Amino acid sequence: MNFIENIREALRSIKGNMLRTVLTALIIAIGITSLVGILTAIDGIQSSVDNSFSGLGANSFDIRNRDVFRIRKEGEKERNYPPINYRQAKMYKALFGKQAIIGMKTNVTFNSEIKHESKKTNPNSRIIGTDENYLDMKGYKIASGRDFSSSDLERAANVCIVGVDVISQLFEKNSNPLNQEITISGGKYKIVGLLEKKGSFMGGGDDRVVFVPLETGRKLSQGRNLTFDIVTSAPNIKDVENIMEEARGAMRIVRQDELGREDSFSIERSDSLVKQSESITGVLRIGGFGIGFITLLGAAIALMNIMMVSVTERTREIGIRKSLGATPRVIRLQFLIEAIVICVLGGLAGLILAIPIGNVIASGIMSGTSSFIVPWLWMFLGIAVCVFVGILSGFYPASKASKLDPIESLRYE
Questions:
Q1: Which of 357, 256, 405 is nearest to 36 (CA)?
Q2: What residues contact residue 344 under an 8 Å CB cut-off, 6+ apart?
Q3: Transmembrane stretches, by residue range (predicted)?
Q4: Which of 230, 290, 334, 386 is buried deepest, with most CB atoms within 10 A?
Q5: Could you tell me the pLDDT band of residue 294, with boundaries at 50, 70 and 90?
Q6: CA angle, 294 then 295 then 299, to 5°
Q7: CA torsion, ordered 341, 346, 347, 351, to nearest 10 deg
């Protein structure tokens, strides 16, 4: 009996026990759905994160406040570094602005309630003050309208650029928000620009935002001490490391850090965020693969049990085949291929379910910013795992069938 005939025989056997086969294949399908679905969702999330960071560029880096040291070493005191203030950020820009492009921003508030006529947003909108360079450097795209002008920045004008989530809460779908006024902390602000949808790693935080000129943001703070972040972009990606060291020296001068002491600020390349996200999703892939594989092991045990029952029910058939000249190898191959065929059929059904489910999960987590993923690698892996599970669960029943005595098998009732 050749390989093709074995497959045909396996399909005939499957057709003869349709309900049992469907239930067994369904177990395999659930396992493959969990395995490939999780991996597809993770790929979709990673794709969305990559798109979010794609506009940042590998030639830029951020200077921020340094986190408080919370781990004490052999009696060393806990250190609390003061935040980067407006004067220091402006000094750095003046000192280093000829060597690189520099953008500044400050978080005015994270929980603002914004109003327009009778409508208002939830009290979770972000108000951010920026200069003329920040939006472009951080990958924000203006869908319509304009960026802040030099006049807006110098006069601390009451103008703003608004994210899509804020617009959707304040304006009707077909209305034009440009040049309309919104109310922020009791003041009127004219909308001069609308942002494209951006998304973020944990949801739509980058779309619940209103940008105002830097000086306007300082006015809105109402006397509070604001913290300023600085973005620096090197002219050439090959010069990033050198520019970073020069920027570190300039910032140490601005911050008056003593010689021999660590920096009182943190400096980090923008593309390091992408690398961090990739390492996180790598761990998630391992975890997802482990969960899916455990599910498939349970399916393999169920399939082995079904194949043992099948061998017992077809003992007389095995005896007839052996009496007609079938060798133990042929019998073993027949039952092994039958187990693999059941697994592959279940795996194909699982793949059909896994791809849309994985993409729906990724889209839900990333607030609709993830693109549709067809995970060819995980699909091939899923089929390979199905074949492995079929061999694993079918080997022992097939071996048992091949060792049956033909005379005793013919007597079996």
A1: 357
A2: 383, 386, 387, 390
A3: 21-42, 286-312, 333-356, 376-396
A4: 386
A5: confident
A6: 115
A7: 140
Could you tell me the end-to-end alpha-carbon distance of the chain, in angstroms, rounded to an integer? 26
Q: Model confidence at 69, in pLDDT bands (50, 70, 90)? A: very low
Tokens of 215: 């000086």
Tokens of residue 72, six digits: 């004490």
Contact 369, 52 (CB under 8 A): yes
Q: How far is CA 214 from the centre of its chain?
A: 32
Residue that is written with structure tokens 């928000």 in the block = 177
The token pair that represents 384 in the structure block:
């390979």
Copy the structure tokens of residue 37: 């679905």
- Plot region of 69 (φ>0 → left; ψ -120 to 50 → alpha; else → beta): beta
- Beta-strand ranges (E) seen in 3-69 are 60-65
pTM (2 decimals)? Answer: 0.60
Max CA distance (Å), the chain = 102
How far apart are the C-alpha atoms of 268 and 232, rounded to whole Å?
A: 10
Distant-in-sequence, close-in-space partners of 121: CB < 8 Å, separation ≥ 6: 112, 113, 114, 115, 166, 169, 170, 208
What is the CB-side half-sphere exposure of residue 243 using CA atoms within 13 A?
25
**pLDDT tens, residue by residue, 221-231:** 877 889 999 99
As a whole number, the mean pLDDT across the chain is 80
